[in-house]
Amino acid sequence: MSTAYSSMQLFPSMFLICFLLLFSKIKSDELQMLLNLKTSLKNSNTTVFDSWDSNKPICEFTGITCNSDKSVKEIELSKQNLVGVLPLDSICQLQSLDKLSLGYNFLHGTITNHLNNCTKLQYLDLGNNFFTGPFPDISSLSQLQHLYL
């Protein structure tokens, strides 16, 4: 009977360890997604990315707001002299992202269909940039309340 009791005591500890490993993996994925954004916009004449260091918590990055779970909730980088192509394939993997504000920059290229993966977006500002091509169907963004293009 002592073996069964010991196993039962181990179960909560093993569950906690698995949860922490999964949580750590999610956080490292979010860090990688934000660093992909920084790399895509590396030619920008801005200091906004100076705080985007892999040794810092992502919630301390300039322009990033996190929710209570420490997941990225908002990216607010409007009027930051950003130059480059927007990596929506990476950005829209941020599962808790509900605000994406990148207006008044020098972003170019096309707005890809990856935008449809940002299903939690409530606020989207991509206005006053230099995007070209057709804008994708965004009917999957059912929570969207504010749209600036």
UniProtKB/TrEMBL annotation:
<dbReference type="InterPro" id="IPR032675">
    <property type="entry name" value="LRR_dom_sf"/>
</dbReference>
<protein>
    <recommendedName>
        <fullName>Leucine-rich repeat-containing N-terminal plant-type domain-containing protein</fullName>
    </recommendedName>
</protein>
<dbReference type="InterPro" id="IPR013210">
    <property type="entry name" value="LRR_N_plant-typ"/>
</dbReference>
<keyword id="KW-0732">Signal</keyword>
<keyword id="KW-0677">Repeat</keyword>
<feature type="domain" description="Leucine-rich repeat-containing N-terminal plant-type">
    <location>
        <begin position="28"/>
        <end position="67"/>
    </location>
</feature>
<dbReference type="Pfam" id="PF08263">
    <property type="entry name" value="LRRNT_2"/>
</dbReference>
<dbReference type="InterPro" id="IPR053211">
    <property type="entry name" value="DNA_repair-toleration"/>
</dbReference>
<feature type="signal peptide">
    <location>
        <begin position="1"/>
        <end position="28"/>
    </location>
</feature>
<keyword id="KW-0433">Leucine-rich repeat</keyword>
